[in-house]
């Protein structure tokens, strides 16, 4: 299993970023995919999750209305569109898949929201 995140960077408050997670080594189209984040000194937290065909989506309360998770099963990729970014969104963002009770993570991509 390999998960590779990309798309992070430095953005001003109110700006937008689109994260991507390219997956390989498993049958992507049958698994829930999730995005988590971890800010300095804080625990890793769930940001958003999407079911295998995209019919079920969940968001953390702090990201509802601003973030959108989506997936392209033909490209084995899951996305996180982040709009109206706030300094509190600063964190390392990780892609996650749980397969047979085992959690797999990417290396993470840094998102910094600052003026």
Low-confidence stretches: none
Distance from N terminus to C terminus (CA atoms, Å) equals 37 Å
Tally of helical runs = 0
Helix content: under 10%
* Main sheet record: 7 strands, mixed
Shape: globular
Tell me what portion of residues adopts beta-strand conformation: over 45%
Order of helices and strands: EEEEEEEEEEE
In total, how many beta strands?
Answer: 11
Structural classification: mainly beta
Radius of gyration: 13 Å
How confident is the prediction overall: mean pLDDT?
97
Keyword list:
mainly beta, four-stranded antiparallel β-sheet, 0% helix
What does this molecule look like?
By secondary structure, the chain is mainly beta. It is built from no helices and eleven strands. Strands 2, 4, 5, 6, 9, 10 and 11 form a seven-stranded mixed β-sheet that branches. The chain has a four-stranded antiparallel β-sheet with strand order 1-3-8-7, with no helix packed on it. A hairpin with a 4-residue loop joins β7 and β8. The mean pLDDT is 97.
Concise structural overview:
With 115 residues, this protein is mainly beta. The protein has strands at residues 2-6, 9-11, 17-24, 33-38, 45-50, 57-59, 67-72, 77-82, 91-99, 102-105, 109-113.
Write the layout of secondary structure elements.
Blueprint: E1 2-6, E2 9-11, E3 17-24, E4 33-38, E5 45-50, E6 57-59, E7 67-72, E8 77-82, E9 91-99, E10 102-105, E11 109-113
Parallel strand pairs: 2-11
Antiparallel strand pairs: 1-3, 3-8, 4-5, 4-9, 5-6, 7-8, 9-10, 9-11
